[in-house]
Give the backbone structure.
Amino acid sequence: MNIELHRLDIPRRLVNGIRRRVNSAKIESAFRARSHRADVAIPESSRAEVIVIGAGISGLATAYLLRQGGHRVTVLEAGAQIGGRADSVRSPFRSGLCADAGGFRFAADHYRVREYLNEFNLPYTNFYNTQGDMLVYLGGALFRRKFGERVRPSWIPRVLTNEESWMFDQENEIEMFRVSGGVDTFAKAFASHISDSISLHSEVRKITQTSSGALVEYVSDGEIKTQFADYVVSAIPYSVLKDMTFAPTLKSDKAEMISGLEYRPGLLVYFEIPTEYWQTQGLSGFAVTDTVGELWSPGLDFTRDTAITISYTKDEDAQELMALPQEERIATIAKRIEEFLPDFREFIQCSVSLCWDEDRLIRGSRSMAQFLSQDQMALIRRTEGKIHFAGEHTASLRLGWMEGALESAERVASEINAICTSG
Ligand SMILES: Cc1cc2nc3c(=O)[nH]c(=O)nc-3n(C[C@H](O)[C@H](O)[C@H](O)COP(=O)(O)OP(=O)(O)OC[C@H]3O[C@@H](n4cnc5c(N)ncnc54)[C@H](O)[C@@H]3O)c2cc1C
């Protein structure tokens, strides 16, 4: 299948105009007024046995919601831990330091993320540091600006891509938050409510559908096991699902979408740096560049000795670096950073790099589903018999974000509740 990308070319003027009108007060009232999920208790006779494949944010939230409805749920997770891309890196850094590996930030209008964080009493805080200057390094020229200050048109040497325009739009930074204790605490909070339902080291290989349900075949501790359920929820990326065996085979348009959906490459490099390095230069530890993508130092705390700075490169830049061995990736990024941050390499205390494209259970950082047509997006989330589809790639809004993953969980829980109560 030739999946054509539809870039959303909305004039920036218009987007900014709309955004300005949606001020904080309105966001707050919309947040309070909105209820995203029907808290349905399903009559006992209508409750179902459900297997959720994958314990990322979407799988965990789906299981959490289905359990609240009274269904019996099993989550089969192939890896050794829950959370998927909503993970945080704590090693090899000094004790207490932590940086995220996905799900870094969320906007004020990511209502679901905020709703569940509040439900679990998990604090969140500003993603960007408001103290110190932020850097813009474009076309070899360096500029400093304050938090929330506009990037001047004269700083921009060429036409920006949509992605770059988004990065350079200072309004995106004003109401952007992060989970204070690391995004992995968010995943763990979901899991803590359903821990007896989660089976780790359980890699699903085959789904056989029958008229009454689906038989799921998975490998656990080297053994092939099977479990039958009324419904199955796939909450794994299509980049991985494409290797699953389905009996009978899925409809051809769905199968082609699963095998054809593209994922964008991303590379993360983490550096532990003395906080003094930033403080003496009056910098916030944040930069937007055309050489090392975005540079972030969330939660830079001058009362501590060190902090973690992350470089996040995407697309072709990431792909080019991925061809190199680990050490060279880190060395290349560090050298590029030094073009605009003097002596940066001398201050590195430890470093590590992470690439989700190389994780065989994820294979990509974020889906490109948001660039598809509405019909193609509908196909991505279309139910196939007893199989329902969750995950960031199946959302209708905020695709690629945790917000989208949560939206997909609510949709799938509603789909199953509706089927169970309609009979
Ligand atoms: C570098 C990066 C930066 C990001 N930045 C942000 C951000 O700033 N803000 C934001 O909101 N989002 C961000 N995201 C996206 C966000 O992390 C994801 O949208 C979200 O975590 C996806 O959740 P998911 O449940 O859809 O899938 P995943 O997290 O991919 O979960 C899938 C799970 O399925 C498991 N699995 C795979 N195959 C099998 C199998 N055969 N059997 C059983 N289990 C299996 C995997 O091990 C995994 O645990 C970022 C992602 C990346 C990678």
Observations:
- The radius of gyration is 22 Å.
